[in-house]
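Practice problem. Given the sequence and the SMILES for zinc ion, write out the predicted structure.
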Amino acid sequence: MQQEALQTLKRVYGYDSFRKGQSDIIDGLLTGKDTLAILPTGGGKSICYQIPAMLLPGTSIIVSPLISLMKDQVDALNRLGVPAAFLNSSLDAAAYREVVRQTSQGAYKLLYVAPERLDSGMFESLSSQMHIPLIAIDEAHCVSQWGHDFRPSYRQLAGWIGRLENRPPVAAFTATATPEVSEDIAAMLGLHDPNIFVTGFARTNLTLSVVTGTDKRKFLRDFVQQRPDQSGIVYTATRKEAEEVCDDLSRLGIAVGKYHGGLNDDDRADAQERFRFDENRVMVATNAFGMGIDKPNVRYVIHWQMPGDVESYYQEAGRAGRDGEESECVLLFEPQDVQVQRFLIDRGTGDPDRKTIQLNKLYTMMHYSRTEKCLLQYIVRYFGEADVPECGKCSNCMDVSAMVDVTEDARKALSCVGRLKGRFGISMAAKVLKGSREKRILEFGFDRLSTYGLMRQWTERDISDLMYFLVAEGYLRISEGEYPTVSLTAEALPVLEGSIQVKRRQSAAAKRRESAGSALPAANAPLFEALREWRRETAAREKVPPFMLFFDAALREIADRQPVNSEQLLAVKGIGAAKVSKYGHDVIAIVRQFKQDGAQGSRNANGDGGSEERNGADGQTDDYPASAPGASGRSSEAELPGQSGAASPSGGEDLARLDGLSSHMQTLTLFAEGRTLAEIASLRGMSRVTIENHLLRCGEEGEELPWSDFIPPQHEALIVETIARVGAEKLKPIKEALPEDVDYFAIKAAIVKHRLSTAGE
Ligand SMILES: [Zn+2]
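Answer key:
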């Protein structure tokens, strides 16, 4: 048999040898074994059932859901001289009848059938007249609701196979299945003790990278421009992003096309053809693009955002390098992508079980973005293929920064998680380690745990980050469900016992420390203040909160880098083209002036000069009368670090202990101690709006906040949708489009939580 298969391979396809796994699968099928084969796209899947179909007497049936792929395969087989046909909804009645007639006479070696057709009486009677030596089921993961692409029509397959008089061997093929989905496929299709093959997931010609914390626009421009002769795909999460990214590249004179569900059929077909024929070298697309596209010379695939699961990511990324040549796959990851995806799942219409599955897939994808181990190994293991060596060239394998011993920190985190007994999530564990005085913590008595406050000097975000790292490394596990909890795995025990060490890349640890500390070298502080003053004035004029112009982090970076033209300004994180065109002139003028004047750029460093209550200007004070009579009316932005401790406490409470913290952090500290916003406003002699803005600023800087206290959960989706519709530039139109009981604070909180002010640039 082996020899015949090899001869057929050579004669029909022109190859001299089988790829890994192919000949074992073919052997099994020729000897009548049921088979479950998990081979990635481009792994030579179709040869595995086409060759047995050619060698066995009768007509093999291939079940496939992809109409365009069926046609392509049948055309290709016919060109190779193999009689084959398909039955699906694209045929008119006459053509359909003709295929049925020819089939009943045994004219074909392979008949491709859409799953919906199998259940018809016509097909039942046809199959009773046929000699069927093999049934191959393509895209078999569609039968499992644990997969990422469940199709109810696949559920009829087992019934139809069961009704056949002589049941032939059944072969299920899929490009994407976790071990869990594999088991489900075998059960749902009623496979008899199948041979199982998992192979070929390691696409060694792909170089995988995860890029975090970069200016995505600049990264993409540079990447594409540095590869002027190469063809590539950029995947975006939304149509809007696809349009924007495409426009951006097109302005650089790059031959770029776009493809998404909002375009009409002609435009999509046109874009696809131009890309296929290399008239456009870059395609910017949503995940609507790619099914059934076989363009072998795609040299790179860039993901503008993290997709919702590893299956989708690897399938899309795997469209690079189908010709086996070296190719690159880059995932641009920002932590807020997780929130966006999670929000989409929460809001989706799926039933609760389905949502749970989607959430788990999302977390696995997130761990890919955060792991510090070989990326290719991570994916290959996810699909259940063991024993694949490190790739040696992904962004993690190439990270030469030293590994540092973080065993002590890991033990603190693990032991805290252990004490919470798997009943709480990562954010609660982080709060306990931080020593938070939040009400919930005190109510549960967690301040009496021995791990309480063990990592007081860390930020909550850094603690969470460490825990996500421990999840990615397999020491912690996150549960399924809407409110995922965290617990220890068996692998955590040796760490707690001190018998193994935990190592982490220095770069990861250092980067986190860097982002946590926001101190600015003294030399640039005057420029920073000048920029803040300009922002304060401009924001007041435009009646928006200052962070909607630029975040502090962006101003800090401007003060640091001192850009003197638009291009340099664009390189600053969080500043897009829209901001540059609107404010670039002003900002660059301030920087230039500063450079000329030297230290004299520190204009009016005494913030007390701003006597006007800024928040009064945007019409919001009516919602919240300042709760303290005699509130000074000073806004947060008017205070300079170091002076804020001087705010006269009206409650007589000792606030001196907060000295040294910036003003907004003082507010957060009081809030974390369980005080209400009104109490803090009164205590600090500030308006409630100012206190709210303090908290939002903390949110911008990455502090964990109880968002559901600020944003009514029942309105959250509506608020986000409304902001997406009318834009985040002005608050009033948003407020007016929402129910009465949604206040300005809820809107501003939603903008910060979902990072909507920068997303729309
Ligand atoms: Zn690697």
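Check your answer against the key. DSSP finds 34 helices and 17 strands in the chain.
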